[in-house]
Design a protein that fits this description.
- This protein is of the alpha/beta class.
- It has two domains: 188 residues, Glycogen Phosphorylase B (Rossmann fold, 3-Layer(aba) Sandwich), CATH 3.40.50; 181 residues, 3-Layer(aba) Sandwich (Rossmann fold), CATH 3.40.50.2000.
- The strands form two sheets. The protein has a seven-stranded parallel sheet with strand order 3-2-1-4-5-6-7, sandwiched between helices. It has a six-stranded parallel sheet with strand order 10-9-8-11-12-13, with helices on both faces.
- Strand 4, helix 5 and strand 5 form a beta-alpha-beta unit.
Amino acid sequence: MPTGEFSDKALTKCLLIYEGRLGSARADSTYVLENAEVFSKIVGVELLVSKRHNWSVPAEISQRFKVVELGKPFNPKNIVQSILGQLRFGIAVRNFVKRPRFENSKSFIIFHDWWPLQAFHFFSRRSNSILVLEVHNQIPLNMWLMTLFNHIDLFIATNSHKFNELRNRVKGKVILERNCVRPSRYLKQNLHIDPTLSSLISQIRAKFHYVIGYTGSFGPEKNPSLLFELPQYFPDIAFVYVGKVSPNRKEGFRRISNLFMLEPIDIKSIPAFQLSCDILLVTLSAESEVSTKYTSTMKLLEYIAAQKPIVAPTLPSIMDMLSEEEFYGYEANSIESAKQVVGHLIGSLSQNKSIRKPLVERLEQYNWDKRNQRILKYCQGILDLENR
Protein backbone atom coordinates (compact mmCIF):
# COMPACT_ATOMS: atom_id res chain seq x y z
CA MET A 1 0.00 0.00 0.00
CA PRO A 2 1.47 3.40 -0.93
CA THR A 3 2.70 5.46 1.99
CA GLY A 4 3.81 9.03 2.47
CA GLU A 5 0.81 10.62 0.74
CA PHE A 6 -1.40 10.42 3.84
CA SER A 7 -0.78 11.35 7.45
CA ASP A 8 -1.27 9.11 10.46
CA LYS A 9 -4.80 10.58 10.72
CA ALA A 10 -5.69 9.44 7.23
CA LEU A 11 -8.18 6.76 6.29
CA THR A 12 -6.34 3.47 6.01
CA LYS A 13 -9.04 0.94 5.16
CA CYS A 14 -11.95 0.61 2.77
CA LEU A 15 -14.76 -1.90 3.22
CA LEU A 16 -16.89 -2.50 0.14
CA ILE A 17 -20.27 -3.98 1.11
CA TYR A 18 -22.03 -5.82 -1.70
CA GLU A 19 -25.23 -7.80 -1.36
CA GLY A 20 -25.03 -9.67 -4.64
CA ARG A 21 -23.21 -12.25 -6.74
CA LEU A 22 -19.68 -10.93 -6.88
CA GLY A 23 -18.09 -11.96 -10.16
CA SER A 24 -21.33 -12.25 -12.10
CA ALA A 25 -21.95 -10.43 -15.38
CA ARG A 26 -24.16 -7.86 -13.66
CA ALA A 27 -23.12 -4.21 -13.91
CA ASP A 28 -23.22 -3.73 -10.13
CA SER A 29 -20.69 -6.54 -9.63
CA THR A 30 -18.43 -4.89 -12.17
CA TYR A 31 -18.89 -1.63 -10.30
CA VAL A 32 -17.75 -3.13 -6.99
CA LEU A 33 -14.71 -4.74 -8.57
CA GLU A 34 -13.69 -1.50 -10.27
CA ASN A 35 -13.93 0.26 -6.90
CA ALA A 36 -11.82 -2.47 -5.32
CA GLU A 37 -9.16 -2.21 -8.01
CA VAL A 38 -8.72 1.53 -7.60
CA PHE A 39 -9.02 1.83 -3.81
CA SER A 40 -6.60 -1.08 -3.28
CA LYS A 41 -3.86 1.06 -4.83
CA ILE A 42 -4.29 3.59 -2.02
CA VAL A 43 -5.65 1.88 1.11
CA GLY A 44 -6.32 -1.62 2.42
CA VAL A 45 -9.48 -3.06 0.85
CA GLU A 46 -11.82 -5.85 1.93
CA LEU A 47 -14.98 -6.90 0.13
CA LEU A 48 -17.81 -8.12 2.35
CA VAL A 49 -20.37 -9.96 0.22
CA SER A 50 -23.54 -11.88 0.97
CA LYS A 51 -23.88 -15.60 0.49
CA ARG A 52 -26.24 -16.64 -2.29
CA HIS A 53 -27.84 -19.95 -3.20
CA ASN A 54 -26.00 -21.68 -6.05
CA TRP A 55 -23.23 -19.09 -6.24
CA SER A 56 -19.64 -18.83 -5.11
CA VAL A 57 -17.13 -16.06 -5.71
CA PRO A 58 -14.83 -17.00 -8.63
CA ALA A 59 -11.35 -18.03 -7.54
CA GLU A 60 -9.80 -15.36 -9.79
CA ILE A 61 -11.48 -12.66 -7.67
CA SER A 62 -10.91 -14.20 -4.24
CA GLN A 63 -7.22 -14.64 -5.08
CA ARG A 64 -6.92 -11.04 -6.20
CA PHE A 65 -8.83 -9.35 -3.37
CA LYS A 66 -9.63 -10.14 0.23
CA VAL A 67 -13.23 -11.32 0.01
CA VAL A 68 -15.32 -12.31 3.02
CA GLU A 69 -18.71 -13.98 2.51
CA LEU A 70 -21.18 -13.26 5.32
CA GLY A 71 -24.73 -14.14 6.35
CA LYS A 72 -26.75 -17.13 5.21
CA PRO A 73 -27.36 -18.19 1.60
CA PHE A 74 -30.69 -16.97 0.23
CA ASN A 75 -32.66 -16.74 -2.99
CA PRO A 76 -33.05 -13.05 -3.96
CA LYS A 77 -36.02 -13.82 -6.22
CA ASN A 78 -38.07 -14.77 -3.17
CA ILE A 79 -39.19 -11.46 -1.61
CA VAL A 80 -39.28 -12.74 1.97
CA GLN A 81 -35.93 -14.49 1.63
CA SER A 82 -34.46 -11.40 0.00
CA ILE A 83 -35.50 -9.02 2.78
CA LEU A 84 -34.44 -11.40 5.56
CA GLY A 85 -31.23 -12.29 3.75
CA GLN A 86 -30.22 -8.65 3.30
CA LEU A 87 -30.99 -7.79 6.93
CA ARG A 88 -29.03 -10.81 8.18
CA PHE A 89 -26.19 -9.77 5.95
CA GLY A 90 -26.28 -6.24 7.41
CA ILE A 91 -26.09 -7.62 10.94
CA ALA A 92 -23.22 -9.89 9.92
CA VAL A 93 -21.39 -6.87 8.52
CA ARG A 94 -21.96 -5.05 11.82
CA ASN A 95 -20.50 -7.98 13.78
CA PHE A 96 -17.53 -8.15 11.42
CA VAL A 97 -16.74 -4.45 11.81
CA LYS A 98 -16.96 -4.67 15.61
CA ARG A 99 -14.02 -7.06 15.74
CA PRO A 100 -11.02 -5.70 17.69
CA ARG A 101 -8.82 -5.23 14.65
CA PHE A 102 -11.21 -2.57 13.35
CA GLU A 103 -11.67 -0.68 16.59
CA ASN A 104 -8.76 1.67 15.99
CA SER A 105 -8.68 1.65 12.21
CA LYS A 106 -9.86 4.69 10.26
CA SER A 107 -12.09 3.33 7.54
CA PHE A 108 -14.68 4.31 5.00
CA ILE A 109 -17.46 1.80 4.41
CA ILE A 110 -19.23 1.87 1.06
CA PHE A 111 -22.60 0.17 0.76
CA HIS A 112 -23.94 -0.72 -2.67
CA ASP A 113 -27.44 -1.40 -1.39
CA TRP A 114 -29.34 0.35 1.40
CA TRP A 115 -31.09 -2.64 3.01
CA PRO A 116 -27.93 -4.09 4.62
CA LEU A 117 -27.00 -0.54 5.62
CA GLN A 118 -30.15 -0.24 7.72
CA ALA A 119 -29.43 -3.41 9.69
CA PHE A 120 -25.87 -2.25 10.16
CA HIS A 121 -27.03 1.10 11.52
CA PHE A 122 -29.63 -0.21 13.96
CA PHE A 123 -26.98 -2.16 15.82
CA SER A 124 -23.81 -0.17 15.42
CA ARG A 125 -22.34 3.22 14.67
CA ARG A 126 -18.71 3.64 15.57
CA SER A 127 -16.29 6.53 15.39
CA ASN A 128 -13.39 6.70 12.93
CA SER A 129 -15.59 5.27 10.18
CA ILE A 130 -17.30 7.09 7.33
CA LEU A 131 -20.50 5.52 6.01
CA VAL A 132 -21.05 5.94 2.29
CA LEU A 133 -24.05 4.90 0.17
CA GLU A 134 -23.75 4.53 -3.59
CA VAL A 135 -27.20 5.46 -4.90
CA HIS A 136 -27.50 3.28 -7.99
CA ASN A 137 -31.28 3.13 -8.19
CA GLN A 138 -33.51 4.94 -5.75
CA ILE A 139 -34.13 5.23 -2.04
CA PRO A 140 -37.27 6.34 -0.14
CA LEU A 141 -37.54 10.09 -0.50
CA ASN A 142 -40.43 11.10 1.77
CA MET A 143 -39.47 13.09 4.83
CA TRP A 144 -40.11 10.36 7.41
CA LEU A 145 -38.34 7.54 5.58
CA MET A 146 -35.33 9.74 4.89
CA THR A 147 -34.68 9.75 8.64
CA LEU A 148 -33.54 6.14 8.15
CA PHE A 149 -30.54 7.56 6.34
CA ASN A 150 -29.50 10.23 8.83
CA HIS A 151 -26.46 8.20 9.84
CA ILE A 152 -24.99 8.21 6.33
CA ASP A 153 -22.04 10.56 5.98
CA LEU A 154 -21.92 10.70 2.19
CA PHE A 155 -24.35 9.85 -0.61
CA ILE A 156 -22.89 9.24 -4.06
CA ALA A 157 -25.42 9.85 -6.85
CA THR A 158 -24.52 8.23 -10.16
CA ASN A 159 -26.64 10.47 -12.37
CA SER A 160 -27.95 14.03 -12.18
CA HIS A 161 -31.57 12.99 -11.54
CA LYS A 162 -30.60 11.17 -8.35
CA PHE A 163 -28.35 14.03 -7.36
CA ASN A 164 -31.04 16.69 -7.80
CA GLU A 165 -33.56 14.66 -5.80
CA LEU A 166 -31.17 14.11 -2.93
CA ARG A 167 -29.43 17.44 -2.58
CA ASN A 168 -32.50 19.18 -1.14
CA ARG A 169 -33.06 16.38 1.37
CA VAL A 170 -29.49 15.70 2.52
CA LYS A 171 -27.89 19.10 2.04
CA GLY A 172 -24.13 19.03 1.99
CA LYS A 173 -23.97 15.22 2.10
CA VAL A 174 -24.41 14.24 -1.56
CA ILE A 175 -22.00 14.38 -4.49
CA LEU A 176 -22.46 13.54 -8.16
CA GLU A 177 -20.00 10.93 -9.39
CA ARG A 178 -21.12 9.08 -12.50
CA ASN A 179 -20.24 5.53 -13.41
CA CYS A 180 -17.04 5.02 -15.37
CA VAL A 181 -15.39 2.80 -17.94
CA ARG A 182 -11.84 1.90 -18.92
CA PRO A 183 -11.39 2.93 -22.59
CA SER A 184 -7.98 1.21 -22.63
CA ARG A 185 -9.77 -2.15 -22.62
CA TYR A 186 -11.20 -1.29 -26.04
CA LEU A 187 -7.80 -0.77 -27.65
CA LYS A 188 -6.81 -3.47 -30.12
CA GLN A 189 -3.67 -4.44 -28.22
CA ASN A 190 -5.61 -4.93 -24.99
CA LEU A 191 -8.60 -6.91 -26.27
CA HIS A 192 -9.34 -10.27 -24.69
CA ILE A 193 -10.35 -12.51 -27.57
CA ASP A 194 -12.43 -15.56 -26.76
CA PRO A 195 -11.80 -18.03 -29.65
CA THR A 196 -15.23 -19.65 -29.33
CA LEU A 197 -17.06 -16.32 -29.30
CA SER A 198 -14.92 -14.98 -32.14
CA SER A 199 -15.67 -18.06 -34.25
CA LEU A 200 -19.40 -17.72 -33.61
CA ILE A 201 -19.43 -14.06 -34.65
CA SER A 202 -17.53 -14.97 -37.83
CA GLN A 203 -20.13 -17.63 -38.66
CA ILE A 204 -22.93 -15.11 -38.12
CA ARG A 205 -21.22 -12.54 -40.31
CA ALA A 206 -20.94 -15.11 -43.10
CA LYS A 207 -24.75 -15.14 -43.25
CA PHE A 208 -25.64 -11.58 -42.28
CA HIS A 209 -24.08 -8.32 -43.42
CA TYR A 210 -24.94 -6.33 -40.28
CA VAL A 211 -24.88 -7.30 -36.60
CA ILE A 212 -26.86 -5.49 -33.90
CA GLY A 213 -25.59 -6.31 -30.41
CA TYR A 214 -27.03 -6.04 -26.92
CA THR A 215 -25.34 -6.72 -23.58
CA GLY A 216 -27.30 -6.69 -20.36
CA SER A 217 -30.18 -8.22 -18.45
CA PHE A 218 -33.66 -9.17 -19.63
CA GLY A 219 -35.77 -8.08 -16.67
CA PRO A 220 -39.07 -6.26 -17.19
CA GLU A 221 -37.40 -2.87 -16.70
CA LYS A 222 -35.41 -3.56 -19.89
CA ASN A 223 -38.55 -3.95 -22.03
CA PRO A 224 -37.60 -7.47 -23.26
CA SER A 225 -40.65 -7.71 -25.54
CA LEU A 226 -39.04 -5.11 -27.80
CA LEU A 227 -35.85 -7.18 -27.92
CA PHE A 228 -37.99 -10.12 -28.99
CA GLU A 229 -40.06 -8.28 -31.61
CA LEU A 230 -37.48 -6.09 -33.32
CA PRO A 231 -35.50 -8.88 -35.08
CA GLN A 232 -38.69 -10.13 -36.74
CA TYR A 233 -38.87 -6.94 -38.82
CA PHE A 234 -35.29 -7.26 -40.09
CA PRO A 235 -34.72 -10.89 -41.21
CA ASP A 236 -31.53 -9.92 -43.10
CA ILE A 237 -29.85 -8.50 -39.99
CA ALA A 238 -28.36 -10.55 -37.15
CA PHE A 239 -29.35 -9.62 -33.60
CA VAL A 240 -26.89 -10.99 -31.04
CA TYR A 241 -27.80 -10.67 -27.36
CA VAL A 242 -25.51 -11.46 -24.44
CA GLY A 243 -27.05 -12.06 -21.01
CA LYS A 244 -28.89 -14.44 -18.76
CA VAL A 245 -32.44 -15.15 -19.88
CA SER A 246 -35.24 -17.34 -18.49
CA PRO A 247 -35.83 -20.76 -20.15
CA ASN A 248 -39.28 -19.71 -21.40
CA ARG A 249 -38.01 -16.57 -23.07
CA LYS A 250 -34.99 -18.41 -24.45
CA GLU A 251 -37.32 -20.89 -26.14
CA GLY A 252 -39.14 -17.98 -27.80
CA PHE A 253 -35.85 -16.48 -28.96
CA ARG A 254 -34.85 -19.76 -30.61
CA ARG A 255 -37.79 -19.56 -33.01
CA ILE A 256 -36.34 -16.43 -34.62
CA SER A 257 -33.69 -17.42 -37.16
CA ASN A 258 -31.78 -14.13 -37.09
CA LEU A 259 -31.68 -13.85 -33.30
CA PHE A 260 -28.70 -15.35 -31.48
CA MET A 261 -28.91 -15.58 -27.71
CA LEU A 262 -25.57 -16.04 -25.92
CA GLU A 263 -25.12 -16.90 -22.27
CA PRO A 264 -23.30 -14.30 -20.13
CA ILE A 265 -19.69 -14.10 -21.27
CA ASP A 266 -16.56 -13.31 -19.30
CA ILE A 267 -16.50 -9.59 -18.53
CA LYS A 268 -13.07 -9.37 -20.15
CA SER A 269 -14.62 -10.49 -23.45
CA ILE A 270 -17.34 -7.83 -23.52
CA PRO A 271 -15.25 -5.10 -25.24
CA ALA A 272 -14.29 -7.47 -28.08
CA PHE A 273 -17.91 -8.51 -28.52
CA GLN A 274 -19.20 -4.92 -28.59
CA LEU A 275 -16.51 -3.95 -31.10
CA SER A 276 -17.59 -6.83 -33.35
CA CYS A 277 -21.08 -5.33 -33.73
CA ASP A 278 -22.16 -2.70 -36.25
CA ILE A 279 -24.84 -1.22 -33.99
CA LEU A 280 -25.33 -1.39 -30.22
CA LEU A 281 -28.84 -1.48 -28.79
CA VAL A 282 -30.34 -0.19 -25.53
CA THR A 283 -33.89 -1.08 -24.47
CA LEU A 284 -35.67 0.29 -21.40
CA SER A 285 -39.27 0.40 -20.25
CA ALA A 286 -40.91 3.80 -20.03
CA GLU A 287 -43.26 2.33 -17.43
CA SER A 288 -40.41 1.67 -15.01
CA GLU A 289 -39.28 4.61 -12.90
CA VAL A 290 -35.94 2.88 -12.40
CA SER A 291 -35.39 2.70 -16.16
CA THR A 292 -36.72 6.17 -16.83
CA LYS A 293 -34.67 8.07 -14.25
CA TYR A 294 -32.33 5.88 -12.23
CA THR A 295 -30.78 3.21 -14.41
CA SER A 296 -27.01 2.79 -14.42
CA THR A 297 -25.07 4.45 -17.23
CA MET A 298 -22.32 1.83 -17.26
CA LYS A 299 -23.60 0.08 -20.39
CA LEU A 300 -23.82 3.41 -22.22
CA LEU A 301 -20.23 4.21 -21.29
CA GLU A 302 -19.12 0.83 -22.63
CA TYR A 303 -21.01 1.50 -25.85
CA ILE A 304 -19.37 4.92 -26.14
CA ALA A 305 -15.94 3.35 -25.66
CA ALA A 306 -16.72 0.91 -28.48
CA GLN A 307 -17.39 3.93 -30.76
CA LYS A 308 -20.31 2.25 -32.48
CA PRO A 309 -23.64 3.87 -33.40
CA ILE A 310 -26.11 3.53 -30.52
CA VAL A 311 -29.86 2.96 -30.76
CA ALA A 312 -31.52 3.87 -27.46
CA PRO A 313 -34.83 5.18 -26.06
CA THR A 314 -35.14 8.92 -25.52
CA LEU A 315 -35.62 8.67 -21.76
CA PRO A 316 -34.19 11.06 -19.13
CA SER A 317 -31.71 8.40 -17.94
CA ILE A 318 -30.26 8.20 -21.46
CA MET A 319 -30.39 11.93 -22.17
CA ASP A 320 -28.50 12.49 -18.92
CA MET A 321 -25.48 11.01 -20.66
CA LEU A 322 -25.95 11.52 -24.42
CA SER A 323 -27.08 14.44 -26.54
CA GLU A 324 -29.50 13.90 -29.43
CA GLU A 325 -26.65 14.22 -31.93
CA GLU A 326 -24.79 11.26 -30.42
CA PHE A 327 -27.28 8.43 -30.79
CA TYR A 328 -30.37 7.25 -32.64
CA GLY A 329 -33.31 7.78 -30.32
CA TYR A 330 -36.66 6.05 -30.41
CA GLU A 331 -39.83 6.24 -28.33
CA ALA A 332 -39.19 3.85 -25.45
CA ASN A 333 -42.22 1.52 -25.61
CA SER A 334 -42.94 1.83 -29.32
CA ILE A 335 -41.86 -1.02 -31.58
CA GLU A 336 -42.86 1.08 -34.58
CA SER A 337 -40.54 3.89 -33.49
CA ALA A 338 -37.67 1.46 -32.85
CA LYS A 339 -38.25 -0.24 -36.19
CA GLN A 340 -38.19 3.08 -38.02
CA VAL A 341 -34.99 4.21 -36.31
CA VAL A 342 -33.15 0.93 -36.95
CA GLY A 343 -34.30 0.91 -40.57
CA HIS A 344 -33.07 4.45 -41.07
CA LEU A 345 -29.68 3.66 -39.53
CA ILE A 346 -29.21 0.50 -41.59
CA GLY A 347 -30.04 2.49 -44.71
CA SER A 348 -27.43 5.09 -43.82
CA LEU A 349 -24.81 2.39 -43.20
CA SER A 350 -25.52 0.62 -46.49
CA GLN A 351 -25.25 3.92 -48.39
CA ASN A 352 -22.09 4.99 -46.55
CA LYS A 353 -23.79 8.10 -45.26
CA SER A 354 -22.55 10.04 -42.26
CA ILE A 355 -23.38 8.20 -39.03
CA ARG A 356 -24.05 9.65 -35.59
CA LYS A 357 -21.63 8.37 -33.02
CA PRO A 358 -21.09 9.26 -29.36
CA LEU A 359 -18.26 11.62 -28.49
CA VAL A 360 -15.55 9.33 -27.18
CA GLU A 361 -13.70 12.38 -25.82
CA ARG A 362 -16.27 12.60 -23.01
CA LEU A 363 -14.80 9.45 -21.49
CA GLU A 364 -11.82 11.45 -20.25
CA GLN A 365 -14.01 12.70 -17.39
CA TYR A 366 -15.33 9.22 -16.57
CA ASN A 367 -12.09 7.79 -15.26
CA TRP A 368 -12.30 5.22 -12.42
CA ASP A 369 -9.01 6.29 -10.86
CA LYS A 370 -9.84 9.99 -10.73
CA ARG A 371 -13.40 9.31 -9.61
CA ASN A 372 -12.42 7.15 -6.66
CA GLN A 373 -9.60 9.43 -5.62
CA ARG A 374 -12.18 12.22 -5.38
CA ILE A 375 -14.43 10.00 -3.26
CA LEU A 376 -11.55 9.18 -0.92
CA LYS A 377 -10.79 12.89 -0.63
CA TYR A 378 -14.40 13.64 0.33
CA CYS A 379 -14.34 10.87 2.95
CA GLN A 380 -11.05 12.12 4.36
CA GLY A 381 -12.48 15.63 4.61
CA ILE A 382 -15.47 14.31 6.57
CA LEU A 383 -13.17 12.45 8.98
CA ASP A 384 -11.01 15.55 9.45
CA LEU A 385 -14.08 17.62 10.36
CA GLU A 386 -15.25 15.00 12.86
CA ASN A 387 -11.83 14.92 14.52
CA ARG A 388 -11.61 18.67 15.06
